[in-house]
Amino acid sequence: MIDFGFDKLALIGTVALIVIGPEKLPRVARTVGHLLGRAQRYVAEVKAEVNRSIELEELKKMKTHVEDAARNFEQTVSQEVGQVSQDFEKSWSELQGVSTPAEAAGGSWHTPVAEYKPVKKNWRAKRAAVPQWYKQRHGVRTRVQSGAARVARFRPPRASSKAGS
Questions:
Q1: What residues make up the domain containing 35?
Q2: Of the four, 23, 72, 137, 157, which is 20 to 30 A from 40 by CA?
Q3: Is residue 35 part of a domain?
Q4: What is the pTM of this model?
């Protein structure tokens, strides 16, 4: 790139002063400054666009890498699940063919299984087993309260007489 030192800038300034003249020099310098600012902004935008495209390419590569890893993991898991299910099916089929130990010994003894009979419970015990929060939520009264006490409980508080004075 071109190297501009102080001596070269001073030489360019004196030539511009002689050629353009002192009346037009400030307007020309302002115009040149605006043009240089536009050029710098344009270069910055181009750099930013190039950086975005590079990052986009890197993200696309990373995306393909992650997708490949996920696909490989899925294949590995499905193979393992298939292997385990085959082993289970093989073990299950082997167990279906084997008889019970009593039948294998030659005897056929059978242990009777008692039928399930539900226990009859007292309805008072059931009522007491309901949680307190459930009773409160559904309005089940758990304590006896007189009508006057109930009215006093839900009456809005009275405003004090001193506040109005």
A1: 6-94
A2: 23
A3: yes
A4: 0.37
